[in-house]
Structure prediction request, 402 residues.
Amino acid sequence: MEQLTEKQKAIIDFIRNIQTNQGTPPTMREIMKEFGFKSIGTVQDYLRILEEKGYLRRRGKFKARFLDIVGLTTNPVLNVPVLGQVRAGAPILAVENIDGYINLDKSLLDNGADFALRVKGDSMTGAGIYEGDFVLVRINSRTENGEIVVARIGEEVTVKKIYCDTKYRHLRLEAANPAYKPISDPDIQIVGKVVGVFRKY
Amino acid sequence: MEQLTEKQKAIIDFIRNIQTNQGTPPTMREIMKEFGFKSIGTVQDYLRILEEKGYLRRRGKFKARFLDIVGLTTNPVLNVPVLGQVRAGAPILAVENIDGYINLDKSLLDNGADFALRVKGDSMTGAGIYEGDFVLVRINSRTENGEIVVARIGEEVTVKKIYCDTKYRHLRLEAANPAYKPISDPDIQIVGKVVGVFRKY
DNA sequence: GCTTATACCATACAAATGTATGGTTGTCAA
DNA sequence: TTGACAACCATACATTTGTATGGTATAAGC
Prediction:
């Protein structure tokens, strides 16, 4: 694709932003206002150039808001619930456990996620998961030895590495922090596999 | 929510369909055509009813293609470019450096992000940032000592902790991995501050 | 010097699109 | 039978929005 100047790039970024945020592209006059142009002709020039360079397409003549950004992945967005405190007895995804929702680009995850969980404690710092991080969890995904999972023991929900002691036929949870001991409780219930982590600074 | 008749439901389904498929809602006359109405007034009636019943909203008067389907409204989404290889000389956000785009829920970040970068190497594992992680970066944000930043030295772009040696009046980059030595290059250029991390398993 | 490209401005006009107003017909409940 | 409501039609008009045309200034390249 041909080079764009700074200004040209700013224009196409603006169009892309409006498109994704309000679900419809801007009009030429809206672009004009945004960039402080005093003439609509200026915008016409930019759009013509962007079209010639292959970054834009127009669908039909005289159509309002019919700019198409070439290559704009209208990425499917995943809407996952964020779990708060989990109450005893209640199923993990019960409405009363849900704290809110976040959106995530599907392309960030291979197979989607069923919920998110805010991490408490420092038991997984050795694996790069810190207190306050969001972990994204896929329920009922097949897990391998050593993978990071969300498990439930009674009303406690934790993030740990899972191991299966085939000899004794029970599950073992291990922290990624030497300060914590492995857990081998017969009541361990694997909720799902951690498929992503998000941290905010 | 109030009940809809068959026809009313068909209308809103059509609007939803057009919105998701072509990225912009239909005009009233397009709706008219689709359903074979002979008068624009018919569509006006339907839209009024759907608005009264709470299934539709209009943004502004006399605006083209500004129907909003209630409930389809996704949270504000940030569309950030993902940087690939950075070429020498080129400004960091030059089009040729951009590998693609990802969408992120705005609520995940306090002040937005300007671009994302795929992490290379293991120099920040001590801070929970691993090879392959995406870091989200805000350009020109004020940085404090010890914060994680993206810096540029020539055509190399790295993620490190930043420190200002006031005594010697120069910047120092430190890895979060004892295997790496601090960098004190006069050409260090701070690109932005790391405001988020995302990792996929 | 000439051409080309970028980056603007100004204005008139055409087409699309939303709005306002006032109808008709049929059904169903009070 | 009256009234409310859904489901239409018709037309004039206001406003937005895209198009067309013709400018100016500056810098780069031949």
User: Anything to note?
Assistant: Chain A touches chain B through 51 residues (CB under 8 Å). Residues 27-29, 40-41, 44, 58, 61-66 of chain A lie near DNA strand D (CB under 10 Å from a C1'). Chain A has a mean pLDDT of 82.
